[in-house]
Amino acid sequence: MGLIRFSTAQADRVPSEALTRAYMAGMDEVPWPTRVVATDEGLIVDRPESESGCFYIPWKVEGFCEMTLCTASLMERTRPYLLEVELARGTLNRIRNQLAAWEQAGLIIPEPIRKRLSDVTEVFSRAVTSQPDPKHAANLASEVLSEGLSLTVALGAAYAQQALATRHASGSKLVTLLGANLGEKPLDKPVAKHFVRTFNSAIVPMAWNQLARDEGEYSWNLTETQLGWCKANDMKICSGPLVSLDGANIPDWLVLWEEDLDNLTGLISQHVRSVVQRFRGRLHVWQAASRVNSGSFLGLSRQDTMRLAIFIVETIREIDPHTPVVISFDQPWGDSKSSQDAELPVYLADTLVRSNLGLAGVGLEMKIGYHPSGSSFRDVIEFSRQLDRWAMLGMPLLVSLVVPGGEGTDPHAKSESIPHPDVWTTGRQEEWVRDYVPILLGKQAVQGIVWDQLYDGHPHALPHGGLINAAAEAKPALGSLTAIRKAHLD
């Protein structure tokens, strides 16, 4: 029960490691617990459901990085599906659906895009009818995938251009926050110069393990220095998360109270009160808690972890009732949920939003191209769809980004997460910024965009995720962000 079989003529396009990130989902897009087994004939997908569903798998596409693609909805059958053809079908299906939705919303589709879609659909027809010759059909399907993903970029650019033109109709620039994380050390002068030219806001990190390495003993020097620098440079200021509910960035001594909800709640209360009382009135946004959906906090159940998130927000509101408060979620596609029965992060967010906590917004952490604890690359259309799904919460969105821009060992990276196997260059990072950040700016719900790693020369979480290399030289992606700010923001 629950078996879907695929044959494939291009198995080399799926690294063996990527099979652990493949999954199936129903029409609600909630991943089912999924096990994918490679055989000499292809893939066997095992899931606990027997209903039709879509198969999601990281796939290497000519001219693109490894991209998570999906099929259209597939029913169980004895005969295997040819995977390349089904991925091409799913890609064209999503393009046509999104084109229709945007057109209904008033988007004018450029005629060259319509012509390209018509041409690639003809190639797909040939691929479908060539399946008795799997190798030939797979080659045609690969052409469809390459041209299809190229079409998503063109369609996304048309959307962004027209959405931004609408948002600029009043003649004024956007008030969207564009910022970056200041990191764990004061900025060097060359880096500070880059920062002021590109960003209008800053994240001042307030990691618990940096503020209080020993219980009850706080060191405020770095935070005070960073706040002073932000004020001198007229930056909007957002705190880093006061508590990361995946257990990251907590002091070592806190582990002594693992699984002890009462003591953990008391210690969190003391910490949050200490920070908020000291810096009340000096920031524009508090990030109360992050990664609410990533699992249990120090052995607590998911329910207790959610209660902690609520408690942290309530504590901040009690001490500082005026400064906006947000909580954030990572892995918005639910990538890690394919092996367990869990809700999508957006559903957890909806539960908290409906709790009348006084939240001012919701944060989205998008660590694109990293695993574990990151999100696979998606095409521009799927990226836009995910943002629209979160916008349905009716809350402003603060989107935090990291995308790899370099290769090899990164001696300053602290996270176990690494880039997906591929060629990660500064050029590819810039390409991502150029194609995807305008989509974010085109969404009215997105009121803040933050690059969560600024400088590869200081300690940071993810390998090569900065916009400035270890020699304090700007990567091309920073130049693209500077141009975006100049064109669209104050």
Structure description:
This protein has 490 residues and is α/β, with parallel strands linked by helices. Helices cover 39% and strands 16% of the residues. The protein is built from twelve helices and 18 strands. The strands form four sheets. It has a nine-stranded parallel sheet with strand order 10-9-8-18-16-14-13-12-11, covered by helices on one side. The protein starts with a strand and ends with a helix.
Please give the radius of gyration in angstroms: 23 Å
Q: Could you describe the largest sheet, including whether it forms a barrel? A: 9 strands, parallel
What structural class do the secondary elements suggest?
alpha/beta
How many runs of DSSP E, i.e. beta strands? 18
Alpha-carbon distance between the two ends:
57 Å
Q: How many individual helices?
A: 12
Lateral arrangement of strands in the main beta sheet: 10-9-8-18-16-14-13-12-11
Shape: globular
Mean pLDDT: 93
User: Helix content range of the residues, please?
Assistant: 25-40%
Question: Which series of helices and strands comes N to C?
Answer: EEEEEEEHHHEHEHHEEHEHEHEEHEEHEH
The parts where pLDDT drops under 50 for at least 5 residues are none
Strand content: 15-25%
Question: Notable features of this structure?
Answer:
globular; 9-stranded parallel β-sheet; 4-stranded mixed β-sheet; 490 residues; 12 helices; alpha/beta
SSE layout:
Elements lengths: L2 E5 L15 E3 L9 E4 L3 E5 L7 E7 L5 E5 L10 E2 H22 L6 H19 L4 H34 L9 E5 L7 H10 L2 E4 L3 H4 L9 H12 L3 E4 L3 E2 L16 H19 L6 E5 L11 H18 L5 E6 L14 H9 L7 E7 L2 E2 L8 H12 L5 E6 L15 E2 L6 H17 L3 E6 L24 H13 L2
Helix pairs in contact: 1-2, 1-3, 2-3, 3-11, 7-8, 10-11, 11-12
